[in-house]
């Protein structure tokens, strides 16, 4: 995919959704951090249900520590891997109080030093809570980047680096959300909705599929 096509692809995604954002419910950087940690291998809908129970009771490092490990587990027990996630959140709350004055740090290394927070989570926090033009590559973005030819790569880090290089600056802040939403609702893993896809004419996978169909038709003629 060349630069003009990439620009066109983001112009189309922007036209369809001018102000994209996360589907996780949150009101503060700390709430977002907890929601993102909970969202590993869980749906945003499931996380929102759990945080709707948790946040009215406890939505700061101190109040979650007061709730305690068992209280936290009880609030999030509907989410997969809740035991490990609860332990990580409790440890994270302690570190935030001890090292960061109970605030979520706006710093990649400090974020990645928190239990349960990897590169992807740090990217989401930096982008969505602090407005930095990072791109967190999850399974949806990895798939869309490879299928479309936008930023092909063998692993998530390779795709992230390529996206940061090739996504035009004006789209970088929101690229993360546009690509996730496109992957979640249109370019789905098992049955991509190519006939209604707004970027089908720009997509490498679609181009390959149509030239394959044309070749088969001429072979069968
Ligand atoms: S045309 Fe199909 S494969 Fe390409 S981006 Fe759209 S949905 Fe995905």
From TrEMBL:
Claim: Lyase is one of the keywords in the record: yes
Note describing how the cofactor binds: Binds 1 [4Fe-4S] cluster.
A Pfam family the protein falls into: EndIII_4Fe-2S
Enzymatic class: lyase
Domain of life assignment: Bacteria
Annotated family: Belongs to the Nth/MutY family.
GO BP annotation list: base-excision repair, AP site formation
Name this polypeptide is given: Endonuclease III
Domain HhH-GPD: 38-185
The EC number(s) this enzyme carries: 4.2.99.18
Gene source species: Acidihalobacter yilgarnensis
Cofactor: [4Fe-4S] cluster
Gene: nth
Upper classification of the organism: Bacteria, Pseudomonadati, Pseudomonadota, Gammaproteobacteria, Chromatiales
UniProt cross-references to InterPro entries, sorted A to Z: DNA_glycosylase (IPR011257), Endonuclease-III-like_CS2 (IPR004036), Endonuclease3_FeS-loop_motif (IPR003651), HhH-GPD_domain (IPR003265), HhH_base_excis_C (IPR023170), HhH_motif (IPR000445), Nth (IPR005759)
UniProt KW DNA damage keyword: yes
Record-linked PROSITE patterns: ENDONUCLEASE_III_2
A GO term, aspect molecular function: DNA N-glycosylase activity
Alphabetic keyword roster: 4Fe-4S, DNA damage, DNA repair, DNA-binding, Endonuclease, Glycosidase, Hydrolase, Iron, Iron-sulfur, Lyase, Metal-binding, Nuclease
Binding site for [4Fe-4S] cluster: 187, 194, 197, 203
Main function: DNA repair enzyme that has both DNA N-glycosylase activity and AP-lyase activity. The DNA N-glycosylase activity releases various damaged pyrimidines from DNA by cleaving the N-glycosidic bond, leaving an AP (apurinic/apyrimidinic) site. The AP-lyase activity cleaves the phosphodiester bond 3' to the AP site by a beta-elimination, leaving a 3'-terminal unsaturated sugar and a product with a terminal 5'-phosphate.
Reactions this protein catalyses: 2'-deoxyribonucleotide-(2'-deoxyribose 5'-phosphate)-2'-deoxyribonucleotide-DNA = a 3'-end 2'-deoxyribonucleotide-(2,3-dehydro-2,3-deoxyribose 5'-phosphate)-DNA + a 5'-end 5'-phospho-2'-deoxyribonucleoside-DNA + H(+)
Entry-linked PANTHER family: A/G-SPECIFIC ADENINE GLYCOSYLASE/ENDONUCLEASE III, ENDONUCLEASE III
Gene3D superfamilies from the UniProt entry: Helix-hairpin-Helix base-excision DNA repair enzymes (C-terminal), Hypothetical protein, domain 2
